[in-house]
Amino acid sequence: MKFIAQACITASLLFVGLTLPAQTHGNSTAKLPTEATVNEFLRHMFGYDQNLAWKVGSIKESEAPGIAEVTVIFNTPDGPVAKRIYVTPDEHFAFSGDLVPFGADPFAPARAELKNTTGPERGPKDAAVTIVEFSDLECPHCKTAQENLNKLMSEEPKAKLIFQNFPIEQIHKWAMLGAKYVDCLGRENNDVVWKFIAATYDHQSEVNEQNAEEKFKEFVKESGGDPAAVSACAAKPETEKRVRESVAFGEKLGVNSTPTFFINGRKVTGFVNMPYDAVKAMVDYDLK
User: Fold this and answer.
1) Element of type H or E holding 71
2) Nearest in space to 96 (alpha carbons), one of 5, 3, 20, 1
């Protein structure tokens, strides 16, 4: 059912962009549509479906000059679905999907940006391949992806993994607190933070907005950390500032859903439905 809901949303958004003309990309700032215009567009597109509600998350300039980027959270009967819609400067056309980098070395700009990661690392310092994971501890898809990710890291000893906080507060109520704990633990003890991340995913279904603090303290203790010290660190304003900077860092790289991975700069979204062998082949290719 969830697949059907997502497919209907995607098909409708793709249909509206089928006649999209070629655009000339200059250095001008994008003309941003108003939230009222976006909501009227969505009402005309999806108003017939009384089971579908939505909320406009953000309206900003996209990576492509002159093109506006709108993030919409659709609340379907099967749960929230985040979609990105791009709007042309004249506001006559919209299209959906991902902007894919182009050029002789399309992933070079992302590789350069990803040298500024701040999250905990796992693997050799001089790794030939670096995998950066933008993740949210409350995200069920992130939990599901961990099995594939752990298998990949065990089979690719020359690869390095970096966990970068990207809590999606609009739909995940305790994700920000979890990210603060990751930030504090990562600065204190690299081994403990990875155990904490694993423990949180393992017990994700037991955590809710009311018991999150208590549960995180339990996971910290089980992982070998000091629960009181980490809790105090998580409460500091500078900790939230670092987490929000991590989110902004991801947004700059075009991240708008979790989990999102960058394999030596190549963006891979999900790692849940994507065949494991395809992702491993990307890593193997870069190792060569």
Assistant:
1) strand 68-76
2) 20
